[in-house]
Design a protein that fits this description.
Length: 1336
Amino acid sequence: MEKLRKVVKEIAYTRDHTNSPALHRSLVPFLTFASSLYGVALHIRRSLYRSSFFHQHRLPVPVISVGNLSWGGNGKTPMVEYITQLLLSSGISPLILTRGYAGGDEAKMLERHLQGGPTKIGVGPNRAATAASCFEKYGCANPSSIRTFFDRTLLHETAKVETFSQEIGAVVLDDGMQHWSLCRDLEIVMLNGLNPWGNGNLVPLGPLREPLPALDRADIAVVHHVDLIPEQSLRDIEKTIHGFKNSIPIFYSKMVPKYLFDVKNDRSHVALEALHDATVLCVSAIGSADAFVENIEMVGARFVDRLDFSDHYLFEAQDVETMRRRAKGLENRSDSKPIIVVTEKDYNRDPEILKSLDSYTVLVLCSNWCLDELVEILKCKEASEQNVMTIFYDIDPSSVRKQKGDFGSAFKKTCVGKTEEVKQRWARALTHVANIKGEHSLNWASEAEMIQKIATDVSRKLNVTPSRDFDGMVGMDAHLRKMSILTRLECDEVIMTGIWGPAGIGKTTIARALFNRLSVSFQFKCFMGNLKGSYRSIMGVDDYDSKLALQSKLLSDILNQKSMRAQHLGAIKEWLQNKRVLIVLDDVDDQEQLEVLAKSSSWFGPGSRIIVTTKDKKILKAHRINDIYHVDFPSEEEALEILYLSAFKKSPPPDGLEELSKRVVKFCGNLPLGLRVVGSSLYGESVDEWRLQIHGLETSLNRKVEDVLRVGYDKLLEKHQSLFLHIACIFNDCYVDNVARMLADSNLDVENGLKTLASKSLVHISTDGWITMHCLLQKLGRQIVLKQSSEPGKRQFLVEVQDIRDVLENETGTGSVIGISFDMYKLSELSISGRAFEGMRNLKYLRFNEANVSLLDDMEYLPRLRLLDWDSYPGRRLPPRFRPEYLIELRMQNSELEELWEGIQHLPNLKNIDLSDSYKLKEIPNLSKATGLETLRLTCCESLVEIPSSILNLHKLKSLEALGCINLQVVPTDMDLASLENVDMSGCSRLRTLPNISKNVKTLQVLCSKIVDFPASVTGYWSTLECLDIGSSSLKRLTHVPLGLTSLNVSTSDIKTIPDCVRALPHLDFLIVANCSKLVSISGLSPSLRYLVADDCVSLTRVCLSIKGLTLYNCFNLDGETRKGVIQHDVDWYACLPGKEVPEVFTHKATGNTVTIPLTAPGGVQRASKGDTEIDSIRRWQWRPNWPPQNLSEHLFILCDDLLDEQDGCLGEMDVTMEEMMFEFSCCDDLFDEHDGCLGEVDVTMEEMLFEFSCRGNGDKILGCGVQILGEERERSSECNIRDGGGDNEQGALEVSQVENIKNTKRVGHLMGSSKKRLLLRRPKLSKKKPKQRSL
């Protein structure tokens, strides 16, 4: 029967029975029918009372009903006791009417708590008759005095305690919500906040004793267990209550464990600390066992197991045996004797039966201890010399010492009904505690400072200090900020989070730092480190004992119990499903480990956090972990900082080691592990020793680094290991499609293999399919190949310079070699014979980079290669015995070739040909059999005269590049190739007419040709053309262009005004009219235009447009209105124009490269209070001599851009089209962005901000600079037709770096012009001081 009760209860609290056990599903129809009958009976009974068919009794005193709508666990009995104590404290003798379920547990508990006082307790199902009997025996108090009490209570006044009378003054009706036979004056409904409505059905299908609309009858609602439910759930409960009665006041209650007593002596007092670090078996037959168990866990028990019975259940002998068996099992698993804890209700039903558990300690949990707890604290102080700290909050210690004033009045109320002995014991305790020195809130002006002082004192007394192990580690704060977003501690769900990245990136360090930060919020926590290393040997798919060992280890650690033994694979769920835990599973490399240790979120209690670190993303995905933090490589600045802290224990490095440090960072590829290991090995060494060790590092991996990196490789399948070696030796920095083609006939399963390597962080594949392997992993792969054989010619790949030289010069290559990758920059010259490749019949991939190779005699043979990439090939033609039918890629840049081969070759696999800079190349062979060719590059083949007509067969050709072929004259006239999209024949100075190219072409470049005009006949034919570069000195006019153009280049042409056909382009975005020496004005262009380049237009005087980017390099005749418009923000991003001084609009300017802004002076940056207008932008300016250096004129270079990207609040990195210019720089920067995580620290006490401008270049000099503070809006006006340019301000790539402090009150910003056409913006970090950093 008890099992059936449990099943019915589980059904009642389950909304969806689809996945319920078969027994549950089979009972649902019967329970549904019974629930319907109950509902009908309930309605009939209620109707009979409403129609007065059933009589309701009115008692002569006020009646307070305490009831509920659902099954037990709502806190009715404690509320009854609370109201009774309230009545007693006001001198009213109450009568409690209770039905007396089962063994009368509730009545007995009330009797024990209220013994010795005037409270009467009437027990019986007919409570009207029981009340009548009590009134007859004790009498009834004067109703008028009782009314006075209720009036004062409602007015929140304090009622004076008078001499008690035996006459009953009020009735408290226990469980009276459905007891309609008695009228009541106040209806209190109690709700179990953990699950107030269950599945929403009436009993027995659900837990409801009445439908929810019955809430309308209640005068007060009390939500119980408020401390155990999330805030959102509480709001939902409130919303439901107010949905039925909007005016009902809602109160909240919770049960606080106070003390324990031994089941053999109900007068004993056992402190809650007795359960600390103990194994506990919770036994209960109450309505809300979950709350009882959770309270025991909060006390600090090490293990908590539970044995639940239905509410009001009377224990029998067989139940005691069940308890004994369960306790014995706990003892065997935890190697410690458990303590059995029951509730007071369980004890009151039958104390004797619990005493029969004499082999175990049985304690009873009490939640009504009051001042007894203070007595116990003082006992511990005296007996165990424990520290006691006193805090007197909003009260004078003398009031506590003498029990006077308001405190004394409250004390007297608390003592009502207590014996004189108890009163004296409490009074002595209060006097004693008032004499202990402590903190008095009345003595503190700031409560926050008092709390800080108390926290410091507690930490000092406990000798507990927060972990500082990870303070100052480079980049750690950013990692933890991002992880805090994923872990979401405010959420009560169980959340599993992954930390993923390559070996040595710092995953474990991040996980440990996060664990240290979060662990203070968790009682049960465990960092299970290095699963890969410690458990690899015991893991096996069917190794049951090994799995149990893993679970035992986790349980022992998290429960702080040595030699914990898991008996079955459900042990973790059994022990932890009701506990809020923090678990870190570090370096997981096998899916089985997660299945064993954290199979499901249901294994852990609400609010638990499981954090998994791994190199293999597939493991996380397979385990349905979607919140994954990818640990990326540190920036170059961060990498240097990590190295400095390892090698010098400080930053910056000593003089003479900066460049060597950068070499180390480059060698380590910014990998934190490599930086830390190498840096430590260089600590304290001289410059010469640094050079010596760096040379060794460049040839071989450090052993510690190799051991870490090799783990991922060793876990791969054999075919994936082979793929790893192919990429490390040949295909690093290649596209996925190219690699797939090269390895198409292998058994390497390239597609899945690449996914595996990427998921294990062994390669990175960009969104556009570019494969990159980290330099240390590449070195690992090459070292693995080196160990294949002591003879280089017998290895799979040849990559080391000396090995390749020996094999080729000595002709020792064998059939084992399938790939050669030769970087000739490491070798000045190589001479090989014509028979060098004879022995390498299986060679498939040959790559010579920057080769300076000489042939001792003509080369006769090359194997059947798939990849032939030979830079600076020395021969006039390819070997006659070379058969290119397997070729996929042919790259022969900078070669001495005059021709490739004779005749027509069968080329079914060939995709790409690149013969760029082969200046002797005279002809292209017949390519009619290369029907799969996609790219043909002939750039700067200066001797090439003709592109053969066989190209007309290349229907898959996408790109034809013949840039700089100065002698090219003959091009097939009708190249209507369906796939051809890009044609570049710029610099073909003898080309006079446009060939009839594919109608699908998108880019056509024919700059510096002899073409005079763009024929009208093709403007409609080339409807898909987007980019047209046609500028040349031969271009005299331009009357027609395709309407779909977005980019147009007509530079060096003879145009005097912008042609009408150009003005009419509706989608034009980018226009170049550079070096148009006759061009006078520019206006009336399409509003779509965003970028204009008009450099060296020496006649240009007028530019009238609002635009994003504008360069007017060497335009010395510009009028004043144009210059004013450019300087005053008619340009949204950048502009360049001649100029010699800082414009007047810049309020802060200086000679040289620095400018200081006073933050408190007029026009300075000030932090406005909330609600005021805030300065949100800064404009920067600088100028320097014009480029090239021999031109001594000076230019302004303006850059206007948001310093903060709107999406991620980082700094912009912008490409600059001019080299080595000096800048006027205008950038919008919200210095005090409240939503920007990068600006978390703001020092509002700064007096000034210093901006420093610097540049990198040869002979460049900053002549002046300026900063202008901008408001939130920038209004523009012009007499010209100006478009609004502010809404389309696209951001470039982003890069963030810190800025050095200047005397704690200044900040430095850097503006760096790069000779590589790149501008880096470095953002001021507004923090008071820069923390010391340590490396990962």
